[in-house]
């Protein structure tokens, strides 16, 4: 009996212990105490030493710090969200990689900042899928960490050889073998250039002496990627600032207004220099290096101007505190903007019936794009409500991302529909004004003809040439004005301005001066319309538009500003600047169209499919910062890769590049 009572007591203690003991410890993101953290207790002392040795070797060879953490559970969060939040609270920088493993959840995240490795996103993905994940599936916890460290230490894989098809065909056709060799050499050059760009991104962009060590090709690629990234940061910050001004007023937002203004001014200097590099005048290698260095330094300065205000702006707009009210307000905005879709679609249909497609290039797909963004906003508002109603520790950052993504997509959807209204107004104003402009230039042609008949006219050859060009512009406007009134109006005002300038010089008459003043107004109207249209186009497609279009637009804005400044003091020069602005804006529109079409061909396929999913519109608009379309850009900057992680842009700088890697179950 005594033994039986003793066994019963032991059994009771064991039962209570089993009931109160947790099955697995769920840990929220936390600050890592060291580079190897084993809260799950899966490493013995020998294995810990092996992992530490591999991590130390990686740092000695690549100066990259790998942090490894084992826990039981990711506390209900996705592996990548847990990993990113842990990196943030641990103050990990752009040269710190993370391997996080939840041994009970059987989930992991492998996150590598772009600047921390010479590997491409594909190399990091191969390392994750082919070495780390298989080790984890075998419960080889130490082996997975050593695979990550050794893989990062190995550096990029060498360029591949000919394809099997090329080898087989080369046996019969020598010409195809030569072609395969050329393609192979191009791939090697591209891989080498990618490696040089990756190394260039690790250099302090504000240090001219450090930049002097880079090759011209790497410096050129770096300058292109930086102006795109910083231009996107400025545009995103400007949109977020508009929301903050509506909420808090100009007084509380004045420091951020000043930061955005300073960044725009500095970035404009970078674009101005970039325009010099893109023009037809060649530079010596030394001159080109100096100009490229100026672009990089100016872009970096603009970026840091915004980045310095990021935390203060986030505190001002604490999106978590009043998230439910914000989400309710955005739901109302979704309803209001949705109500505009059908009228805007009808307006576009009317415009297509009246005018040629060339006149509507900048707005032809705006309604469809706005509809996609509204769907994206609605999804994030719904997710935001779920997070706000069921607050879970560690999910505040996802709630902020939902609010920010919804805000940005609504702002862009509204801007897209506003652009349709503006295009309709501008085109119809041009159509209404075109007859008077034709009559005005015909008067100038008549006046020039009478002066030339009199003989002994100063600058007779130039005046005759300008008169003939004006007559040709009138003929073109009469032929095309009905289908593309804004384009015809732009060409007409340029010819009219040239003729008026010569008439004013030849005959100082009041009539010519008045006509010159009218020509200034017409040229400015055409330039403003062109610049506004292409700026809206790039702004709502900034995720895929490359540096060339942005450079032309920045130069067009500079010429437009000069035209405004010279309007009253030197009308002839003002007209020249306005015409230059219109021409550059047209070039920017063509380049931006090419970027969009190239991205669609590369990533959406010939039949409109593709891998972007429901978030494609947000990536195109630059709301989600990712690299789905970076291959379609000429000089795209960074982006998230591998695991498909995306986050919405916010007030602040470009972030200095993207994150390779990803995560999942094993």
UniProtKB/TrEMBL annotation:
Domain of life: Bacteria
InterPro entries attached to this UniProt entry: TPM_dom
Tagged with keyword Transmembrane helix: yes
Pfam families: TPM_phosphatase
TPM domain ranges (all copies): 36-153
Signal peptide feature range: 1-26
Coiled-coil region: 492-523
Transmembrane feature ranges: 162-184
Keywords assigned: Coiled coil, Membrane, Signal, Transmembrane, Transmembrane helix
Name of the protein in question: Membrane protein
């Amino acid at each position: 009996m005594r033994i039986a009572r003793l066994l019963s007591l032991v059994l009771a203690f064991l039962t209570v212990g089993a009931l109160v003991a947790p099955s697995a410890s769920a840990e929220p993101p936390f600050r890592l105490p060291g580079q190897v953290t084993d809260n799950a207790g899966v490493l013995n002392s020998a294995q810990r030493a092996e992992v530490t040795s591999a991590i130390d070797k990686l740092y000695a060879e690549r100066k990259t710090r790998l942090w490894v953490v084992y826990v039981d559970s990711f506390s209900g969060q996705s592996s990548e969200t847990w990993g990113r939040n842990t990196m943030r609270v641990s103050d990990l920088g752009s040269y710190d990689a993370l391997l996080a493993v939840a041994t009970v959840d059987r989930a992991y995240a492998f996150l590598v900042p772009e600047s921390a490795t010479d590997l491409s996103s594909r190399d990091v993905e191969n390392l994750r899928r082919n070495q780390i994940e298989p080790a984890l599936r075998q419960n080889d916890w130490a082996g997975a960490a050593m695979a990550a460290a050794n893989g990062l230490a190995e550096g990029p894989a060498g360029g591949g050889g000919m394809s099997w098809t090329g080898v087989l065909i080369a046996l019969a056709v020598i010409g195809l073998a030569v072609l395969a060799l050329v393609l192979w050499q191009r791939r090697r050059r591209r891989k080498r250039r990618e490696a040089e760009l990756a190394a260039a991104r690790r250099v302090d962009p504000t240090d001219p002496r450090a930049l002097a060590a880079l090759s011209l090709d790497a410096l050129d690629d770096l300058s292109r990627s930086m102006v795109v990234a910083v231009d996107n940061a400025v545009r995103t910050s400007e949109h977020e600032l508009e929301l903050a001004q509506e909420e808090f007023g100009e007084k509380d937002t004045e420091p951020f207004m000043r930061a955005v203004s300073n960044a725009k001014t500095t970035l404009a200097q970078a674009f101005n220099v970039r325009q010099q590099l893109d023009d037809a005048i060649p530079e010596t290698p030394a001159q080109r290096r100096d100009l490229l260095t100026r672009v990089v330094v100016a872009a970096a300065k603009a970026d840091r101007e915004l980045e310095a205000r990021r935390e203060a702006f986030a505190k001002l707009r604490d999106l978590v505190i009043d998230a439910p009210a914000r989400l309710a307000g955005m739901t109302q905005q979704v309803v209001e903007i949705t109500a505009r879709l059908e009228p805007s679609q009808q307006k576009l249909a009317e415009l297509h019936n009246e005018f040629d497609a060339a006149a509507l290039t900048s707005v032809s797909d705006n309604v469809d794009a706005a509809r996609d963004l509204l769907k994206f906003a609605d999804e994030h508002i719904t997710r935001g409500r779920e997070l706000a109603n069921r607050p879970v520790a560690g999910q505040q950052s996802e709630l902020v991302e939902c609010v920010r993504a919804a805000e940005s997509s609504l702002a862009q959807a509204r801007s897209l529909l506003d652009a349709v209204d503006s295009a309709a107004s501008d085109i119809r104003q041009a159509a209404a004004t075109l007859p008077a402009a034709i009559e005005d230039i015909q008067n100038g042609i008549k006046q020039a003809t009478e002066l030339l008949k009199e003989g002994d006219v100063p600058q007779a050859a130039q005046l005759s040439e300008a008169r003939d060009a004006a007559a040709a512009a009138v003929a073109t406007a009469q032929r095309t004005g009905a289908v593309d009134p804004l384009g015809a109006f732009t060409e007409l005002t340029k010819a009219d301005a040239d003729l008026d300038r010569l008439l004013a010089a030849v005959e100082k008459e009041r009539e010519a001066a008045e006509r010159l003043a009218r020509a200034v107004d017409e040229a400015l109207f055409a330039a403003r319309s062109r610049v506004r249209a292409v700026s809206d186009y790039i702004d709502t497609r900034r995720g895929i538009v490359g540096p060339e279009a942005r450079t032309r637009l920045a130069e067009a804005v500079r010429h437009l500003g000069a035209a405004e400044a010279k309007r009253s003091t030197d009308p002839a020069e003002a007209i020249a600047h306005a015409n230059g602005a219109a021409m550059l804006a047209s070039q920017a529109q063509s380049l931006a169209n090419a970027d969009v079409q190239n991205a669609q061909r590369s990533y959406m396929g010939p039949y409109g499919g593709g891998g972007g999913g429901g978030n494609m519109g947000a990536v195109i608009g630059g709301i989600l910062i990712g690299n789905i379309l970076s291959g379609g850009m000429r000089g795209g900057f960074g982006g998230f890769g591998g695991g498909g992680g995306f986050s919405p842009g916010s007030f602040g700088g470009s972030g200095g590049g993207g994150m390779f890697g990803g995560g999942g179950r094993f």
